[in-house]
Recover the amino acids of this structure.
């Protein structure tokens, strides 16, 4: 269920983000821009409803988005993708799931969760720039499902084969959208070639 989005604008922004010489400010801007292009691609099948519109010349029936969209960034790095989605879907609700990877075990540790109600009929976009071992995304998806979420798309920037395999095994019906499928994880669970620690690069920590 992995879809790599090959659009040239996505690929060229990702290449700039990977560059070690790209500073925090540019990294953040590129992340928002890239996320917007990815969201444009993954929302193609969202439903529309008719709406009466009066143009300066006459009335007509326009079509507007008819979807309860819920965006769920995984804290912290996922918040760097928030603006990119909200610029395109300003009416989206936002839930937050706080997870960090224990640096020794690489297991996700949950520290925060606040999700909007009525997840059962929502189009949920779970966002996190990195899919490494898959532990964080699997845990976040478990939480969303536990709260009633059904229609989930997982959007990341860089995926490792190990993370794709683990996530697909845990949540076989949820599509993963990534800008790149990288080579492998290193011994510390970092993606190679990757882009480093996404949270640190976004927030300058
Ligand atoms: C990073 C990243 C993912 C996670 C991916 O977060 O943003 O959430 O690692 O790794 P995994 O697939 O092996 O779980 P991190 O734990 O560094 O926390 P942060 O966002 O607060 O920096
Ligand atoms: N988290 C990151 O931020 N980067 C990686 O390469 C792996 C996990």
């Amino acid at each position: 269920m992995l879809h790599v989005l090959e659009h040239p604008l996505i690929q060229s922004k990702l290449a700039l983000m990977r560059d070690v010489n790209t500073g925090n400010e540019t990294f953040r801007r590129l992340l928002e821009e890239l996320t917007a292009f990815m969201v444009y691609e993954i929302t193609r099948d969202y439903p529309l409803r008719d709406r009466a519109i009066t143009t300066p010349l006459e009335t007509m029936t326009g079509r507007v988005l008819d979807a309860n969209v819920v965006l769920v960034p995984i804290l912290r790095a996922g918040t760097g993708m928030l603006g990119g989605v909200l610029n395109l879907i300003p009416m989206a609700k936002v839930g937050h799931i706080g997870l960090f990877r224990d640096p020794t075990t690489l297991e996700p540790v949950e520290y925060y969760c606040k999700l909007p109600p009525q997840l059962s009929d929502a189009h949920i976009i779970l966002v996190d720039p990195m899919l490494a071992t898959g532990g964080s995304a699997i845990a976040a998806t478990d939480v969303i499902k536990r709260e009633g979420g059904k229609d989930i798309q997982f959007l990341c920037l860089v995926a490792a084969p190990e993370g794709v395999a683990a996530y697909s095994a845990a949540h076989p019906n949820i599509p993963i959208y990534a800008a790149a499928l990288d080579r492998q994880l290193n011994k510390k669970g970092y993606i190679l070639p990757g882009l480093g620690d996404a949270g640190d690069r976004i927030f300058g920590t």
Q: What stands out?
A: The pocket of uracil (ligand 2) is lined by residues 77, 130, 132, 189-191, 194, 197-199 (CB under 6 Å).
